[in-house]
Amino acid sequence: MKYVDEFRDGDLAKNIAAKIAEESNPYGHARSPHLNPLPREAPSPQSSPASGRGGEREKRSIIPAGEEANESLRELSNPCIYRLMEFCGGHTHAISRYGIADLLPSNVRMIHGPGCPVCVLPIGRIDQAIRLAMERDVILCTYADTLRVPASNDLTLMRAKAHGADVRMIYSTQDALQIARDNPQREVVFLAIGFETTTPPTAVAVKQAATEGLKNFSVLCNHVLTPAAMHAILNVEGGVQLDGFVGPAHVSTVIGSQPYEVFAREYKKPVVIAGFEPLDVMQSILMLVRQINEGRAEVENEFTRAVMREGNRKAQGLVAEVFELRTDFEWRGLGTLPDSALRLRPEFAAFDAEQRFGIDYVAVADHKACECGAILRGEKRPQECKIFGTVCTPQNPIGSCMVSSEGACAAHYTYGRFRG
Amino acid sequence: MSRKKTNYVKPLDLKHGRVEMSHGAGGRAMAQLIFELFATAFDNVYLAQGNDGAVLPPVSGKLVMSCDAHVVSPLFFAGGDIGSLAVHGTINDVAMMGAQPLYLAASFILEEGFPLADLKLIVESMAHAAKEAGVNIVTGDTKVVERGKGDGVFITTTGVGVLREGVSLSGDAARPGDKILLSGTLGDHGMAILSQREGLSFDAPIVSDTASLHSLVAAMLDCGAELRVLRDPTRGGLATTLNEIAQQSCVGMSLQESAIPVNPTVAAACEFLGLDPLYVANEGKLVAICAAQDADRLLAVMRAHPLGSRAAIIGEVIRDTHGFVQMTTKFGGRRIVDWLTGEQLPRIC
Questions:
Q1: Residues B86 and B48 in one domain
Q2: What pLDDT was estimated at residue B1?
Q3: Closest approach of A416 to chain B, Cα-based (Å)
C-alpha cells in the first residue's frame, strides 16, 4: 500500500532498533555527559552523579517498587530505565500488533496511557445512552467499540439491542444525520465519544442539523480533552514515574503540538508527537531516548507529515463555535477532572440530548476487582490485574480497557499474552 | 369458433413477477415455481424422479455429509452471488474431509415480494456452479415467509460425498513440526462483500474468491503428501481456523506474516475499514497442514492448480500447551493471532 507500507518496513525498523539499543545502553560508548554509566551493583549515594537528570534516573532505577520479582532483577542489571508513556490507544495498538516490544531493549519500557476513547468513559455515561435507547425509544447511534463497553445491570449497548433497543453502529456522524432524515418520526441520538480527533465531525453534524432544521437529531456529548488527561496523569500523588510521552497522532493533527509545550516547560517531560504506524513509534522512541540522554525536555514532532504547531485552525474554529468547556467531567480511572470535557453551547441546546431528554448523570463505581483505573493511569500493567485473562477477557470484558483493541488490556490479551 | 385450451397454465412472469405467499403454500403455484424455475435449472435424473426424496445409486466407501446455511447481504456481489456461494460453501466443507462431493440438497426460504427475476438469476447461478463442480442438486424445498421476515432469500445446502480410501483428515491431527500451507490470498470474499456494502470503490474492484475447491483437494491427495488437516477459512478467517485447529490438536502455531499473501486492494480496504485480513472471510481458499518433509512437494502441486497459484507455506506447528497461534510480523516483532472476539468491529480513531 502506497504511503503505508513504507512506515512498516522491517529493515528500517531493525536500524532504528539498533540505534535505540545503542543509545539507551548505560554501558555503551556513545554516552552524553548527562548520563554516566552506572556500576552493576546498587550504587551508594556517594557514587551518584551530583546533579543533572542522570542522578535522578539512577536513584529511581534501584527502587523497583510495585514490580514483579523478575522485573526487579532485570531492572537492577539494567540500571538505566526509560519509562515512556504512549498516551494514545492507537499507539498501544500499534505497539502490540507489530510486536514492537520485541524490538526494544528491556530498559526501554512502554507504559500505556489513557488515550483510548471508550476506555475512559465511565459506566454512568454508557448507562445514560442505554436508558435513552431502552426507555425513551430513540434510535441510538454510535461508533463501533462503544457498543461493547460494560455498563450497569450486566448490559452493554449491544445487549440492549438484543433486548429490543434500536442501537445502530455508524462509521461517520453523517450516517447519524442520514438516519435522522430517513426517520423523521423518531428521535435519533448520536452518542458522541472521543478525544479531539472525533470532536470536529460532531461539530459539523450539529451545525448541519441546525442549518437543515432537523428536529429529531441530538448529541449525547462525551468529548474529552487530551491535555487535561495528561495533566491528571502527571499530578496523581504517588502516581506513575514517567520520563517522557509519545504524543498523540490524530489528536495532534487537530490541536497541533503547541498544547503539549506546558508539559515540557512546567513538568520537564519530553514529548514526541508520533504517527500511528510502527516506524513512527520506533522513531519517536529514539527521539525520546535522545532528549532524555541529553537532558532536554522539548516538544518534538515526528509526525510532520500531518501535524503543525498550530494544528487545524478550521477544525478548532468549528469546535469552539459549537462546544464549550464543562466545568468538570468524570473519567474512568482519572476521577472527576475540571475543564476536561466539552458540552454543546447554549445556542445549540436543542441538539443537546442531555437537555432535550432531561437525563441526569449518575456516577457508578467500577467493578471491585477491575484495575482499569490504575491501568489507565499507567500505574499497573494489564497482567497485574487479578481478573485479567480469567474472568475478564475480550469475549466477556469486565472493564472498559478489555473492550477496544486500543485498550491496554485487550491489546495485551489479544496480541501479547504469550509474553506472560 | 376457437377451442378453449383446457390445460393452459399462464407461465410465471420471470421478468416482473414477485414471490407470493402462495409459492410456498404447497398448491399449484408452488408446483409451478418448482417446475418452471428449479427443476428446469437443476435438471438431472434424480430430481426428475419428482418424489419427496431422491433415490441415489450405491457408492463404495464412507460417506461424508455436511450442511451450510447462507444468508449473505448483498445477494449479488463481485465474483458471485448467494447461489454460487451456497454451492461452493457446502462442496468445500465436504471436500475438506478429503471426500469427492457427489450430491447437494437445497432448501430455500424466500421472502414475499422478492423479485422472481432475481430468484431466477440466483437459481441459474447455483445450477451453473453445481454443473461446473460435477455435482447434482438432487432434492430441495421451498418456503415463503411474509414480507419483512426474511432478507430476500436464504439458502441452506446439504452435501454428500464419498471419502477417498485411506484418507483421514481431522482438526486434531496437527503435530509439532508440521508445516502450514495456505492456498492463496486472504480476505477477497469478505472485502468484496464489505466494500460493496459500504459503497467503497477501488480502481480494481475486489472480487470474491468463491470457488469449489474439491479439484484442488483431489490433486493434493493424489500427490501422496502426508496431509493431516484441511480446512477452508470462511467466517472468522484464517485466524479463527488456525485457532480451532490449535485447540483441537493441543498444539501452538508459529506464522510468518511476510509469507501470507494478501491482495494489495484487499489490504487497502481492510486498512480503510479498520479490519485485519487475517479475520476476514474467504470462500475459495484452504489451509493445509502436512508433514514437514512433504511440504515443498505439496506446495508445488497446489501452485500448479489454478485455485492454488498463490499458495504459500505460511508457518509451522509448534509445541505449546497454551495453544497460542503466534506470528512474526513483517515489522520484526512477535504477536498472538487470537480468536475473533464477537464481530470484527472497526476501531474508532
A1: yes
A2: 52
A3: 6
